[in-house]
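User: Could you go from structure to sequence for me? I need the amino acid at each position, not a summary. Structure tokens:
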């Protein structure tokens, strides 16, 4: 099968690899249809690591994908060949203390697609996944929408963890796919005064068109001052979706006393910091969002019902042999890119 692998920093090759095989009775062989280029994939492409997770080349990234079922393990009864599915890239053990506590997103034995030391990614024509990672989308959502159910699930989980209500005032710092996912979910939950910041002008316009109450570019204005002018007591919840020290500092300045900061973005840096005086005096709760937990089916359902729209995020489409071109585009935030898809 054809696959694209990282062979070094900012280096990719199209290679022929052996077909994967079903080894477990609950495994399913899948033909990959589309793959979304995620910011975490780009981190590995640009730097070869995210924190302690370091790539050993060659390595295949990619974790957002939709697929068609080709063959099934002997114990799989509720799915069949030919069905279209969305994929949860997190493969959990179901047996550790975290899984038993309902925290499968922090499973101690978790294997995640395209994560060094855990599992190769999905930038290839065929993969094998456990049946509990698959969500049927036949007749519900398109293959392109199915790809976006994975980032949408993170938005759903972040909003759930925030305790946001219909009266909540919200700020979202960063309008990439995760920030925009948080935006459409907060809208679906009837939040008020949703303020969005972003440095890429085209993404800011997307956020405005999707329905943000206010948008601002920190390159052009003091976004903290502008948001506090609109929301004088500060937002109840700030979703930090950029993974930057600058936006973490802005979140601390913005959130009201007793409010919550949701750290959703993945920093490139090994360490970030907080001004503890502000954090303590305002008694701010800081909550880390680790991917998602049991939110893939709700994501599929929200898209299928029309409660949220996600397809507006897709701005670019590439073929498999154009994968490096897609990664360079996303890494450089060029041409107004929000979500680039690799189509098989």
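Assistant: Here is the amino acid at each position, in order:
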């Amino acid at each position: 099968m054809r696959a694209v692998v990282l062979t070094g920093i900012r280096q990719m090759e199209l290679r022929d690899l052996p077909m994967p095989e079903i080894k477990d009775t609950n495994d399913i062989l899948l033909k990959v249809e589309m793959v979304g280029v995620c910011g975490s994939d780009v981190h590995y492409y640009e730097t070869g690591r995210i924190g302690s997770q370091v790539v050993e080349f060659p390595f295949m990234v990619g974790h957002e994908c939709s697929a068609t079922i080709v063959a099934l393990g002997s114990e799989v009864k509720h799915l069949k060949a030919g069905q279209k599915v969305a994929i949860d890239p997190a493969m959990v053990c179901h047996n550790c203390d975290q899984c038993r506590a309902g925290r499968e997103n922090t499973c101690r034995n978790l294997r995640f697609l395209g994560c060094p030391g855990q599992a190769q990614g999905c930038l290839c024509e065929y993969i094998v996944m456990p049946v509990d990672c698959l969500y049927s989308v036949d007749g519900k959502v398109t293959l392109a929408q199915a790809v976006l159910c994975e980032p949408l699930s993170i938005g759903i989980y972040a909003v759930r963890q925030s305790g946001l209500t219909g009266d909540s005032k919200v700020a979202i710092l960063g309008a990439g796919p995760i920030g925009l996912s948080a935006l459409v979910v907060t809208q679906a939950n009837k939040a008020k005064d949703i303020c969005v910041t972003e440095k890429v002008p085209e993404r800011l316009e997307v956020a405005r068109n999707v329905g943000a109450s206010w948008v601002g570019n920190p390159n052009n204005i003091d976004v903290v001052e502008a948001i506090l002018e609109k929301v004088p007591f500060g937002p109840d919840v700030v979703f930090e979706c950029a993974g930057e020290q600058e936006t973490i500092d802005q979140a601390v300045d913005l959130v009201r006393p007793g409010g919550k900061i949701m750290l959703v973005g993945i920093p490139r840096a090994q360490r970030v910091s907080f001004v503890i005086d502000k954090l303590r005096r305002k008694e701010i709760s800081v909550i880390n969002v680790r991917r998602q937990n049991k939110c893939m089916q709700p994501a599929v359902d929200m898209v299928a019902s029309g409660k949220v729209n996600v397809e507006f995020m897709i701005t670019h489409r590439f073929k498999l042999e154009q994968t490096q071109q897609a990664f360079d585009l996303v890494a450089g935030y060029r041409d107004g890119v929000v979500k680039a898809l690799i189509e098989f």
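One structural detail worth keeping in mind: The chain has ten helices and 19 strands.
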